[in-house]
Input
Amino acid sequence: MIRVIAARELRSLFLSPLAWAVLAVSQFLFAYMFLTQLEVYARNQARLAGLESAPGVTELVAAPLYSSAGVVLLLIAPLLTMRLIAEERRSDTLTLLLSAPVTATEIVLGKFAGLMGFFVLMIVLLTLMPLSLSLGTSLDLGQLAACVLALLMLLSAFCALGLFISALTAHPMVAGISTFGALLLLWIIDWASATGSTDKTSALFGYLSLDHHYQPLLSGVFSSTDAGYFILFTAMFLALAVWRVDADRLQA
Amino acid sequence: MDDILIAAENLCRDYGALRAIDQVSLTLKRGEVLGFLGPNGAGKTTTMRILSGALAPTAGRVRIAGHDLLESPRAAKIRIGYLPEHPPLYRELTVDEYLYHCARLRRMKNGAARAAVKRVKARCGLNDAGHRLLGNLSKGYQQRAGIAQAIIHSPAVVILDEPTVGLDPIQIREIRALIRELRADHGVILSTHILPEVQTVCDRVLIIHAGRIVLNSAIDQLAADTGWRVGFARPPSIERLKGVPKMRNIQAVDGSHFRFEAGEDGVEELLRAALAENWGLTELTRQSRTLEEIFVQLTHGEQPAAGGAPS
Output
């Protein structure tokens, strides 16, 4: 059932110009970022060669690329998540799902899986760029895998939060701007701890930050705290979305 | 199992402080078309949404072919086809893609779903529209696609919320013919504003007003159940009249005249009582009413006892 809903979601996404526009624009931006990183690396290559245990190409090109991709997708993800449920509610197609023999959990997971399918495609396209370097040099495939995994977890967190906010309203634009606001806040909330103060609040804010858990994963440090943070984040907002979709049926 | 497809008991639904429907009970048998009438805002759509499982009732329960809609929603919902007021169409899909998706959503296997799409397209006159986008179809075709998705999985119960709204007369005739055809192996609930439609396609009529059911009667019964006007020289109290068997809906017109509904046997009972208790019959006339008159009477507060403002 989840597969049926996910397939419909993906199909509709690719039937609208939005998916293609998003893929084209993001791919263009990623390519530009990749090339500038590569340029910087090429210019400093001679100096790096002199260093003992110099950072490799993966660390200097791929990790910053995935880091910037995270920011780009922070801007793009709300555009894709906002329609998920709000638009179905607006155009009365949600009734079709609610009166079909499927549970709210299946609806939410189907939509989540559908959009994640799209994001996986996007990550694949992005990953082709650093992979192309393996033609000329050897990559740290472990770190690259960590980057891919980190971006995947980051996107599932974006997607879950966006899905939940989309379930709250019948206006896609409201869902979009709210999701963007929430994600941006969660991204920069660790600025409070970056001021140097060491009290408990800023430590908590630092812990809550998406970026704070994203960066260590990119550098290849796979800590279960960071992975756990993303998994819990995703699971929590998916559960909230299920609760919210069910509430449509129950007491309004 | 007997052939009761929907058994709804005492359904209530509140929206905040507003009670949209109050103690609605109804049954639908196989092979029956139930016409659902009521003024706008009376609770028709709320009731239909509850019966279709898209909305949970605040109180009461619904059993679909013996399966409780809240306790075993999957078994119950697979037996329901629902066309909401606005057909739930994904405008970016073609008719074929949409119907296939709907069939899969109702847990049909791939092959069965493809066959069902073909069958239902032929049945709803969509054969030549299979590759067109839903968003580009005319209102009539969109409505047909909406009906097609409601019957694609051969549900026991088909719930249609105003299926003929916005269609031209020819399309209305086609859809009525389709509904009559559906009766053979489904039970159909149909809401509409067009009163003659109820008389032509429905077996039973149900009128809802201010969230309560004010009439539930077979169409034939409605014709047989003519109204009567009776006058007495020495009128009994209305309570006494209500004690006479087989008379329904007794109302006082003035001090000495009453209006009531009854079949021939009810009139006989009344005459017997009038003779025995010496009321002095002065008038007895037949007043047959059309569905429209009944509808207007029941929904326009001529009788303050029914209806009642939502609290």
Summary: Residues 2-249 of chain A form one domain.
